[in-house]
Amino acid sequence: MKKNWVALPLAGVVLSACVTVNIYFPAAAAEKAADKIIDEVWQGTKSPDTTTKPGAPAPAVPVNQKEKSI
Amino acid sequence: MIEPDTIMPDNTTNHFFRIRIPGQLLTGLLGLCLLFLPGSLWALQVTLNIADVAAPGFSARGIKAVLAQNGSAEFSIAELGFADRTLHGLHLHCAEFLLSTEQIGCLNGKLDSLPGLSVFLNYRVKPQRLELRLTGKKDESWQLNADLRAQPWHASVRLRNARIIRLSGLLPPDGPLPSQGGLNGTLAIKGDQQGVRQFNADLQLDDWAVSDASGLHAAEKIHGKLQAQATRTGRIWDWSGTIDWQDGELFWQPLYLRAGHALQASGKWQDGQIQATQAVATLPDVGQVKLSALWDISNSKLLDGRLSGKQLSLAAGFANYARPFLENTALAKTELKGHADLEWRYRKNATEALLFKLRNVSVADAEGRFSLNGINADIPWHARARSVAQVSFADSELMKLPLGASKLKIQMQGKDFVMPAASLPVLDGKLEITDFHLHQKDGNWQWNFSNTLTPISMDKLSAVLYWPQMHGTLSGYVPRVSYQDKLIRADGTLLFRVFDGTAEVDHLELYDPFGRAPRLSGNLDMRDLDLDLLTNTFSFGNIQGRIDLSVGNLELVNWRPARFDARVASSPGKYRKRISQKAVENITALGGSGAGAALQRSFLRIFESFGYERIGLGCELHNEICTMSGVDGEGEIYTIVQGGGIPAITVMGYNRKVDWTELLSRLERVMQENMQAVVK
Amino acid sequence: MNALIKFCVAWLVLFSVNVASAQVNIEINTPGVSALKQSMHDRHSQLAEFYGNGAVGLTSDGMIAVRDASAVPLAARQKVNGLVAAENQDRKALYAEIARANGHPEWEGDIRNTFAQRWIQRAQAGWWVQIGGSWKKK
Question: Which top-rank group of organisms is this from (chain C) (predicted)?
Answer without folding.
Answer: Bacteria
